[in-house]
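Input record (one chain):
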Amino acid sequence: MGGTVLTERRAALRVWSAFALLMLLVAAPVFSTTLPPLFDYPNHLARMHLLSEGGNQFYEVRWEPLPNLAQDLIVPPLARLVPLDVASKLFLVATLGLIAGATLWLNRVVTGMWRLWPLLAFTLLYNRVFLWGFLNYLFGIGIALFGAALWVALERKQWWLRAFTSTLVALACYFSHVAAFGFYALVIFGLELQAARVELRARCWPALGSRMVIAGVQFVAPAALFAGYWDKRAGTGVSYPAIWRKADLLFSVFDNYNRVFDIVCFASFLALLAWLAAARRLRLSPRLAWAVGAVAVVYLILPSQLYGGSGVDHRLPIALCLLVIGATAPEFPNRRIAAAIGVLTVVVLSARLAFIEHVWVEAGRVYSADLAGIDLLPRGARLAVAHPASAVNFVPIPEVHLPVLAVARREAFVPTLFAYKGQQPVALRPPYAALADAATPEALWDFLWRDDTAENAGLGRILQQYDFLVAIGNEPQRRVLSGCFQRIFTRPNFEILAVLHNSACDL
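The corresponding structure, as predicted from the sequence alone:
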C-alpha cells in the first residue's frame, strides 16, 4: 500500500513538474508583446477599464446576471493590485492554465492514474477560438472540464455535497459563458447516461430517480437565470452552414499563423488518434465515451447563428478535442515509442510557439506605433471609426478594435465598444447610444473612400458630431474631402483624421 502511494506521488510530481514547464512556454508570448493580437482583445480591455472605473460620461456600468462575465468579474478586482494590462494578461495565462490543468485532472479521475498523455492539450491552447479573443468562453470550458472531473471524483461522497459543489460549478460555467455551460451540461449528461440506461433496463426506479435529481439539481439555478433574461438577448434567427464546414471547422484547433505547418500538425494529431484507435490502444474511458459522443452529435447539428450568437458551432471543436484527450489513456507498444511521441510533441509545441512568438513580437511593434496616434487625442474626445466590411476577418495582426483603447487611454467615446444589451455589463449613455447607432464603420468607410451615393446621405452630418475619425484599412483611391478633415496621424493601415466642424461638410 505504501509503495502504491509513493508511486502515485512520484507520478503526480513528474506530471505537474512537466505541466509547470509547459506553462512557462505557453505564457511567454503573452508577456513578450505590448498587446496580445487577439481579435477582440482591445475591446475587452477597454471594457475592463470602464468596469474598474465605474463608467464615465459616455458609458455606464449595468451589472446583471449575464452568461458572459468571466473576465468581467475577475480582471477589474485584479486590476486594483496590478496595472490593468498586466491583470488582463494574467487572466489570459490563467485561462490557458485552467484548460490544461482541468484536462489533466479529468484524465486522472477517469483513468485512475497520473499520465503525461493529457499534457497534449498544451498543443491546442493557441487555437483559432483563442486568437479570435473568445476568452470568456475558453475560461468557461476550463471550468466545465474541472467540474466534470469534480463530479466524478465526488461520486461516492454524500449526495448533498455533490449537489452543492456541482451547483457552484454550473453557476460558474453559466456566468463565464452560456456556451461553456451548454458544454458542461452535455458532459454531465454523457457521464450519467450509461448508468441511467442500466437502471432503466433493470427497472430500478428509485436509483434512477435519485440519479436524475442529483444530476439535474445543479442546472436549476442557471436555467432560471437564463429563462429570466432570455427576453434581453439581442438578435434573432437561426442559420446553418454547409455540411462540409463541419469537417473544416475541426481544423480550427490548430489553425493560427502558418497554414502549411498547421495542417501538418492537425494531420499528425488525427493520425496519432487513428493509429491508436485502429490498434485498439486508445482506451477511451467508458464513462466519458458517452459524453464525447453527445458533444460530437450536438456539434454536427448545431447551427452557426443562434439568436444573436455568431459562430456558435465554431466554438465546440476545441472543447471536443480537449474532452477526447481527457477521456483517453493510450497504451503504447513500448516505452521507446511513448518517449519518441512525447519528444516529438514537445518539438511540435516549441515550433508552434516560435511561430506565435514571431507574430506577437511584430504585433507589439505595430500596436505600439498605432497607440502613439491614439495617445495624441485629447481626453474626452469623440472618435468615429471607419473600416471596410472585409476588415472584420481574421488576420495575424488585427487592428479593427484597436481604436476602442482610446476609451481606456483617453477617456474617449468610441462607438464600436462592445456594449450590447444582454451581453455585456456596460451600456452607452442615451445621447451617445443614438450617435453610435446612426452610422456603422462600414457605412462611414464607403462615405469617405468611395463616390457619394444616396445611401451615404446624412453621414457628413453625423460625422460633424465627432471630433476625430480613425480609418482602418488601406484604400488606394481615396475620395478628397478638403476642408472637412485634417490628417493628424498616418500609418499604413491606421489613420487618424481631425473632423473640421464646417457647415459645408454637413452633407
